[in-house]
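Q: Hi! First time asking for a complex rather than a single chain. Here are the components, and I think there are two in total. Is that enough to go on?
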Amino acid sequence: MQRREFFKTLGTVAAVAAVATPTMTFAAAPVSANQMSYENALSAITGGKTPKESSAIKLKAPEIAENGAVVPITVEVDSPMTDADYVKSIHIIAGKNGNARCIDVHLTPANGKAMFATRIKLGGTQKVSAIVGLSNGDFLIASQSVKVTIGGCG
Amino acid sequence: MAKRKSLIKIKPKTYKDGEVVKVSFMVMHPMDTGLAKDKKTKELIPAKYINNVKFTYNAKLITTLNVWETLSTNPVFTTYMKINGKGDLTVSYTDNTGEVNENSMKIKPKG
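A: Yes, that's all I need. Here is the structure of the assembled complex.
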């Protein structure tokens, strides 16, 4: 009986240790003030809606980025950009970065063309997604994985 | 208020009324994440990044950007814009430490 209890306590101690250690190491490393996961970023953008995969979005990103500190990203969307039908917003998110959200672009019909380009930092090899919000409330998504040789965060 | 170097570029350089042109805005900014350490002092560099950029053309807001620290150092923002008469294109930007700056450019369509 004693032996059995001993193993029971040993099991719980091991379980607690297993749960506690990752959080402890996590707290020791510096964490971004805007820590956000891919799922949280996605729901914050779409408000719970599931974005549709679409070929209307052209996401241009390098397949292999030698330097993760500077990764050029271009998002282009096929849209007439009239008052009735235009691209309302373009969001770029990088799933494995500490803060997954990179940039939100709010466009208006005065832009004439739905395109946005910038350069982002990537902490490692990961999937970069572009989420496009249309004026009718729908969301579209396109993703591409980028291989990073040297990480660029921190 | 620190003065920052920034540049607005329009492509093509000569344009007509009603044409859709490419607008690039570049700014010299460290975009520190707050995670990197100073190599000499071994201390964390505090976060400093641009968090909001606004493109205003003829007093009309055309594009707003919400930015996080995951953008590269000295960021470049490129988008398109429809030329609609003479006026000013103003790009104003703020960072998380409360720094406010702006840069403007005169739009003169030909023909």
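A: Chain B has a mean pLDDT of 90. Let me know if you'd like any chain examined more closely.
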